[in-house]
């Protein structure tokens, strides 16, 4: 569903079918998947961000630790914001952003000002969309966001900012292959 076609970027709130596989973007775009792993005991989270092209090739992967995170929504909103920052730093101009946190996706596509404690984070996300020539947000089911989920969990083992280009830790590479439906565990 397009929210405002007059904006320089379009927003998409579609929910993809529960196929168990990652859906590629058109050739002229990249797909940016984000997820977060939240630790309520220590109030921190790890953001997992994956950027793939239309062939499903991994262009970049990143984990970012976050301190003083109050709840899962905050963890996911920070991961979304960090996904946009990484995309901007890489000079990407045509992106489709996907995440499995419905509340986050709903709030970033809502034209209403969010007056919650996370309103500033959501406002920052919306401001960043101006840096892209094409921009969409989509909610997807967790099963379709598995590689980003695995990446966030891998980041828990080494809680520091880590960035990989055209590769990722082995469990993430395997999840990327499974997402594409090309994984053969017998190899």
Automatic annotation (TrEMBL):
Matching InterPro entries: RNase_H-like_dom_plant, RNase_H-like_EbsB-rel, RNaseH-like_sf, RNaseH_domain, RNaseH_sf
Pfam families per the UniProt record, alphabetical: RVT_3
Domain RNase H type-1: from-to ranges: 33-153
Region Disordered: start-end pairs: 1-24
Biased composition (Polar residues): 7-17
SUPFAM superfamilies: Ribonuclease H-like
Protein name as catalogued: RNase H type-1 domain-containing protein
């Amino acid at each position: 569903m397009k929210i405002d076609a007059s904006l320089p970027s379009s927003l998409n709130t579609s929910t993809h079918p529960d196929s168990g596989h990652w859906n590629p973007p058109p050739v002229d775009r990249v797909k940016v998947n984000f997820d977060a792993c939240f630790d309520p005991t220590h109030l921190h989270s790890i953001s997992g961000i994956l950027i793939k092209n239309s062939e499903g090739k991994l262009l970049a992967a990143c984990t970012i630790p976050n301190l003083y995170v109050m709840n899962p929504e905050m963890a996911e909103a920070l991961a979304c914001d960090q996904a946009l920052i990484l995309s901007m730093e890489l000079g990407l101009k045509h992106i489709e952003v996907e995440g499995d946190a419905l509340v986050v996706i709903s709030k970033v596509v809502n034209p209403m000002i969010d007056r919650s404690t996370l309103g500033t984070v959501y406002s920052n996300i919306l401001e960043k969309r101006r840096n892209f020539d094409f921009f969409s947000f989509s909610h997807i089911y967790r099963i379709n966001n598995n590689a980003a989920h695995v990446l966030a969990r891998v980041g828990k083992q080494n809680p520091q900012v880590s960035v990989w280009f055209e590769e990722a830790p082995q469990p993430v590479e395997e999840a990327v292959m499974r997402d594409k439906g090309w994984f053969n565990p017998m190899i």
